[in-house]
Amino acid sequence: MVIGGGTAGLRTATIASKNIKVLLIDPGTLGGTCLNTGCIPTKAMLHSSHLYSLRGSLSKFGLHTNYRIDFSRLMKRVNAIVKEGQDHIYKGLEKNKNIVHVKGKARFLGKNSVAVGKKTFTAKRIIISTGARNFIPPIKGIDKCDYLDNASAMQIKRLPKSIIMIGGGYISMEFATFFSELGTKVTVLEKFPTVLGMLDDDIRELLIKYLEESGIKIITGADITEVLKDTVFYNGKKIKAEKIFMAAGRVPNTEGLDLAKAGVELGKRGEITVNEFLETSNKNIYAIGDVNGRAMFAHAAKRESYVAIGNALENKKRKMEFELMPFAVFTNPPIGGVGINEKKAKELKIDHGVLKAGFINVGRARITEDQRGLAKVIYNKKTEQLIGAEIIGPNADDIIHEMIALLNMGAKVSDLRRIIHIHPTFTEVMENLKG
Predict the structure, then answer these.
(1) Which helix (H) or strand (E) holds 7?
(2) Residues catalogued as catalytic
(3) Is the pTM of this model over 0.90?
(4) With 90 as the cut, is the pLDDT of residue 316 above it?
(5) I need a surface site. Which of 233, 357, 391, 407 has the fewest CB within 10 A?
């Protein structure tokens, strides 16, 4: 039994169905956050806004054109891409006779039994992959505010003239980039001292610099006390905008599952606690994807499905390794990261070294008129082993894969130095790394 039909659940059900019958339970449209309101549509939106943002620099390339925004057509394309993905999923299910899809909310009745409406189902092995949802902080007036979030933003018909982003995580930064690039006046309110707190200071400061240069206003340390229609009150001040966007984080979808009846324990944030094999406190139940709170990325969910299937059905005892889980932030320019950054190395008291290189000296960056950014690599001084990297700059979300590969093979600085990079490409920034 698979509960949840998002990235993790669908992949799990598909793999398992090659050998056994699978019951797939989900209350909504299959595809989860990634396909319906996350990875796929937001990156399609950002591709359009990135293209539009180039209008001011086209004259440098000897090009002149009259740009205008057809917002309805932009969003029509985005939703068409989503619909194409949904159709692919449902057509695949029609052909797969080993997957039985039940639409509805699941709730546990016991250690191996689940109710969906008036029907009861049992299974020897159960994998929970119910994902996560937008967190709405308990702000006065928020329940009466017609705010946007990552889901409702997919349905907007008109580009707002101004917007307030509540939250400073990657979802907020990506949507802030989208709206700003299309001409919306964007203000970000973050309660913590910094946005994107997981980043090293120098990488984050560069991003903030670029975002502010593009017109985005970022206010940190913002203690929001009330939201009233188009107004947000914070730190004794108030700010107005045509729209308010809630992006204050994500919380696992565990409410209503009655997990206690199955003997499944939860963590402090409502996440399902799992061990290194992705087993819950009930050894016949596994939890994968956003619902376990370990790494809320679609690529993490894909790997977890592979690990969980091997453990649940084949007694493989595969371990899920989160230490080298990469990430990207699709701002402009984008950010890519993997492993231990400098901030974490200091916390762990690792005797580390840092290699840095700017895109200012990269030929391809000069050609494209985008020399923003910095590549940063962290290594262990005693062993010379590479332990992490963060990159901000053009194509950083792709360039980071070089470091992902090197870290996974336990490479050293000398291995990095041996790589020959094609000229002229953005990846040549890695040849310029200096201590």
Answers:
(1) helix 7-16
(2) 423
(3) yes
(4) no
(5) 233
